[in-house]
Amino acid sequence: EVTGIVTTMDGVAISDAIVSFPSSHTASYTRTDENGVFSAAVGWKNGRSHLIVTAPGFARLRHQLELDSLGSEPLRLSLQNGRPLAVTLVGPSGAPVADARLSVAIREAEQPWRYAESKTTDAVGRCRFAELGAGDLRLTVTHDGVEHRVAVPPDAVEYTFHIENPATVAIDWSGLVDAGIEPVYILLRRPLPAGQGTSRPSAEDEIADLMVQSGAAPNTSFRCAPGSYEVLAFTGDTRETVKTEA
Question: What is the tens place of the pLDDT at every residue in 99-149?
């Protein structure tokens, strides 16, 4: 059983906050009482679980649970004030993009990026996020089959996301085949600085955008957002890398 107290950053109890347990088969969600207290029997997998706390006007909080670290004292969870962000999505023609699913990721300090929330743009290409936390923000949208990403200025409350026309990267790996190198697959990736990946803070952080199995004609084309990429040819034991601009 997990017991906790949810408060503001100043220590004021938050009542009626929703505490959910997405990875638990035992508890689904509960609410805090007038003193900000909650209690729930949680299912554990390999001694681990997690909870998510949401409350109107506050940023969504995700907290990792470790069975070995639970003590007799209740968890003390503090919520930050929500950070609003209104986004207008504009296509390459300059017209607003309606009915597009726009997601936002957040990165605090030197932590990896983590998903925060998704919204669908309205008829004039707008959507509003009301309860984001502090940290760097990154917007992602897929338009016409191509994924676009952009970093949002730290203090922005209004942002216009301009989508550029897709670029094309044509890859010809016949030279590898002629040299006796048989790629298992060809990968187009967008490298990121260490610590800015989607999963692990390492020098290998990357966004794997597109992949193609080799073995057919030794050439193909990728449609992608403009930017810097690397083309990787994996052979199973080794890999060949070439930098390119889209």
Answer: 999 999 888 777 778 888 899 999 999 999 988 888 889 999 999 888 899
Q: Minimal CA–CA distance to 88: which of 60, 129, 31, 132?
A: 129
* Contact by Cβ (8 Å): 191, 146: no
Q: Which residues, in sequence order, are bridge partners of residue 114?
A: 106
End-to-end alpha carbon distance in the chain: 52
Residue type, 36: G
Strands of the chain (E only): list them. 2-8, 18-20, 29-31, 37-40, 48-54, 61-66, 75-79, 83-90, 101-107, 114-120, 126-132, 136-143, 146-152, 158-162, 167-172, 185-191, 206-213, 219-224, 228-234, 239-245
The model carries a pTM of 0.72
